[in-house]
Amino acid sequence: MNYADFPTKGERTRAHIVATAAEMFWQRSFNGVSVDEIANAASVNKATIYRYFADKGDLALAATRHQGILTLEQIFEASFAAHKAPDQRLIAIYTKAYRGNIEMKQERGDLLGCPVLGLVLELGFEMPEIRREAGHIFDRVQSYFTGIARDAIAAGRTDGAPDKIGRALMQLHHGACASSRIAAEPEYILDAGRTSLQLIGYPEAALAI
Amino acid sequence: MNYADFPTKGERTRAHIVATAAEMFWQRSFNGVSVDEIANAASVNKATIYRYFADKGDLALAATRHQGILTLEQIFEASFAAHKAPDQRLIAIYTKAYRGNIEMKQERGDLLGCPVLGLVLELGFEMPEIRREAGHIFDRVQSYFTGIARDAIAAGRTDGAPDKIGRALMQLHHGACASSRIAAEPEYILDAGRTSLQLIGYPEAALAI
Amino acid sequence: MNYADFPTKGERTRAHIVATAAEMFWQRSFNGVSVDEIANAASVNKATIYRYFADKGDLALAATRHQGILTLEQIFEASFAAHKAPDQRLIAIYTKAYRGNIEMKQERGDLLGCPVLGLVLELGFEMPEIRREAGHIFDRVQSYFTGIARDAIAAGRTDGAPDKIGRALMQLHHGACASSRIAAEPEYILDAGRTSLQLIGYPEAALAI
Amino acid sequence: MNYADFPTKGERTRAHIVATAAEMFWQRSFNGVSVDEIANAASVNKATIYRYFADKGDLALAATRHQGILTLEQIFEASFAAHKAPDQRLIAIYTKAYRGNIEMKQERGDLLGCPVLGLVLELGFEMPEIRREAGHIFDRVQSYFTGIARDAIAAGRTDGAPDKIGRALMQLHHGACASSRIAAEPEYILDAGRTSLQLIGYPEAALAI
DNA sequence: GATGAATGAGACTTCATTCAT
DNA sequence: GATGAATGAAGTCTCATTCAT
What we know:
4 copies of one chain form a homotetramer.
Chain A: H1 9-28, H2 35-42, H3 46-52, H4 56-82, H5 86-108, H6 117-123, H7 128-154, H8 162-183, H9 187-199
Chain C binds a DNA duplex through helix 1 and helix 3.
């Protein structure tokens, strides 16, 4: 997080709380983390949290949004900015995801997968706003994948409906996150990357470590 | 659940508790459901639950196992018993999953997705036994998919490593469960089914409603 | 409280909590007493309170009812049972009230007045059920006073509408409770008793200490 | 409130806070209103409140005083200034009270009764200064009633000790406030007015709407 | 052996109050 | 000097679990 983005003290405090909470929810689920723990981890008083968020659910919503923005920026936007070719973009996406997870595994011995998926599966029915937010995030993820699909079609590598391919790529991505977290196995991410390359007609493209 | 499988009264009580809890965890997550609520829903005394289970986590483990067995039997074993050809088996799997979710959506307005995925994402790090159990379940799921892949290879429809294809099919399945739950959209399941058929080299096979 | 009236253990616990809470609310108001304090004073766990009452307001409602029943029984019913003549009944009512307050003042240095009035003034708008309950209690109080008025009219001591006189007697009673509590002065109760006797046409009747 | 009475900005701010808080305490009790809510309602910063008042209790004391002054001026002084005869004065007092409550009931659907009684019943034991303040206010109220009694005696309408009659009138007034608030019934005020007229020997005097 | 009753710990939230700019 | 920001304490309520009959 770039703290320069939050000029006032309050905005910085708020952003710090969100980032802390997001990290904890990611690791230990919404209900598995108490507001007390978040306050301690963020080194703020519990009442300060309630100054910025109506309730714990509101904080979870902000955390979801935060994780969505972060993922979209650091994985998808970055990959699109750095590359033009569809296979290169896909490779960049999966390489980044893989590296992030490798790092995590080294740092904490575990690998957390998608920071949004767990929250929305846990809270989707109880908190429709979180579900809606996750829906938006995943819509944007799918858009990126659809763009890749479209370019692959334009390059004559595959055919079919770009949005259907985009959805398939997103589903594979979801599955990769989930299965790699469950098995604590980063390689599963690369597997999904390879399947994705095949789906857009670049079976020969290689995923660099 | 076939109650005839549990001859003694105690076994029936236990099975009834597990089934009730499994349903509730599926819908509202582990931490979102209290032991009180489970006892009420199952119409048993709370202390009775603690007669059969060491603690709430133990109950969650049993629920995970229960859901795993159910899914493996009703979706995968049934599909394999009914069909021989790989595409037919895949079609059966996805058709069953789709129909189950359609039913759910009609009955409760929502669609719950995979009954194991949410639990293990929520509790995986805190309760290693659940993670292990989910690992076993998903290993068996992957085995079924790997078998389908192997048969498709034998039929000359695709090539590659069967286990890698099996993993891809499982990841797609995970992604289908997750994305359809988030969007409350059963069609996403069929989309994943079609992608799966394509992956094993049966792009022309049709998913009956 | 006669504990024999509550056969089961749970009923006794519940009654004990109500009696304890009623006493505390009377002295220090609803919001001035915490559930923790009530639990401590009643020597039960806080969770036990919530086993018997949906929330603190529900406990206040039970306390209101409890105080109403107690007052009606010990002051009004008892006075009516012991005497037939309207002046004697009025004298009995005010004598009991006076003695109770004298006792209180000796025991705690203060005098609490009406156990229902404070609660309903504090919570009437937020908790309509308490207001309704207090309404019922005071309706019954007014009925007793109206009965006295009717008998005084029958005895040729006064005329007018019995219910209007009944209401006047009740209002005087309310005022007596309030003013004696504020001034910590039990004599104000006797003053109201004398005014009441005058209002029903027995100006010469004397209030024994 | 006449803001012209408070020349400096600070005094106006202070007076505005007191008036706002008094209104809120009246409606929802001392403990039922938070300092935050008062600050919001008065459109001042919370810290500003603490610039003018040592603590919330101090604000309650000021609110009590404010309500006392207001009531004494607008009801009692005004009635005494407008009329000379004791029955006319009593009628004026009760008419004003009645009209004020009718207005309230139309405006908010409820009727708040005496603005001091609730506060002092709630806080009397915890905050002796408030009790003392209320004592002073009610002493002055009683003085007004005693004056009326004295004039009625002088007019040969009744006999007895003026201060005892004054106390009776005040107790009736308290009771009228309480019972009308509980029942949300302004007519109860008029009833007390009629009883009061009777007590000072003007049973035939009529209370204009 | 099954269940009503009880509990300690901790959940979320709000309170009155003060700090620091 | 006024206000946004912060806090410790305490509030109500619920949790998973166990006792005692």
